[in-house]
Write a structure and sequence with these properties.
Length: 274
């Protein structure tokens, strides 16, 4: 068909609308499959620069956590030297002072005394003084003391009461000043006994606690002996007591503290090591 000048056809607009529709559909497909859309290729999305996942951080050096500090070594508690498990078990848990008297042998009347202390049951025992020379029973030591056997009893005993002929030097334990503590005569080797009981600390063997050392009650019976004390040394063996020099007795009286539940641990070396 031949067109006249100025005539407008209707077919051209339809073709432009078709092209516009195709362009619109194509743009919509780009939106659905382009940036921000879901990919269909199966490839994982790229990580954002500078950001690490938890798994990456746990594997990589940059995200590795600090190594835990090694545990502190256990504190070593020092026990009293020379005491075996059986003897240590006899020391009360709340005792914080222990006067340890170690005989040279089962039949020896010469011994060594050391005062130990600790701040608490879970703390170490440490010596308070240097070792002191001491005497014990004439015939040595025994696990079962009887009156007149001239042996000192082996064991762990409380120290709760003190006294003497001389005035109280400042003892922390209850102190009984009494003339009855006077003594005369000679010891086993002819040494004078005068002054031996100027200062004493009662050893709680076969006695009632909390009374004067001169109290005569014997819970185990008279045949088991009694009146076992720490007293002033007269230069020789005793009938069953423990003796140290007068200066040492004063030091002991000024140091033994009832708040620390003091005890005496006494016996020959072999017995204490049990």
């Amino acid at each position: 068909m031949r067109l006249r000048p100025g005539t407008v056809t209707r077919a051209a607009p339809r073709r432009r609308r078709s092209r516009l529709l195709v362009a619109t559909v194509f743009a919509l497909l780009l939106v659905l499959t382009g940036c921000g859309g879901h990919t269909t290729s199966g490839a994982p999305p790229k990580a954002v620069a500078g950001v690490r996942s938890d798994d990456e951080g746990s594997r990589g050096p940059a995200g590795a956590s600090a190594a835990p500090a090694p545990p502190a070594p256990p504190v070593r508690i020092l026990e009293i030297p020379g005491l075996g498990p059986g003897t240590r078990a006899q020391i009360p848990v709340d005792a914080r002072q222990a006067f340890v008297v170690t005989g040279q042998g089962a039949d020896s009347n010469e011994s060594t005394a050391v005062l130990y202390a600790r701040d608490a049951p879970d703390r170490s025992w440490t010596p308070v003084f240097e070792p002191w020379a001491a005497h014990n029973g004439m015939e040595g030591w025994t696990d079962e003391h009887y009156a007149g056997d001239l042996r000192s009893p082996v064991g762990v005993f409380g120290l709760t009461d003190a006294g003497g002929k001389l005035p109280d030097p400042g003892a922390l334990l209850p102190y009984d000043e009494e003339e009855y503590f006077a003594v005369e005569g000679d010891g086993f080797f002819g040494e004078p006994l005068a002054g031996s009981f100027d200062y004493v600390v009662a050893i709680n063997y076969n006695r009632v606690e909390g009374v004067s050392p001169i109290d005569h009650e014997r819970p185990l019976g008279e045949d088991r002996g009694g009146g076992i004390w720490i007293h002033v040394d007269h230069g020789g063996p005793t009938q069953g007591c423990v003796s140290v020099s007068e200066d040492r007795m004063k030091e002991l009286l000024l140091t033994l503290d009832p708040e620390k539940k003091p005890v005496i641990v006494m016996g020959d070396k072999a017995s204490l090591a049990r």
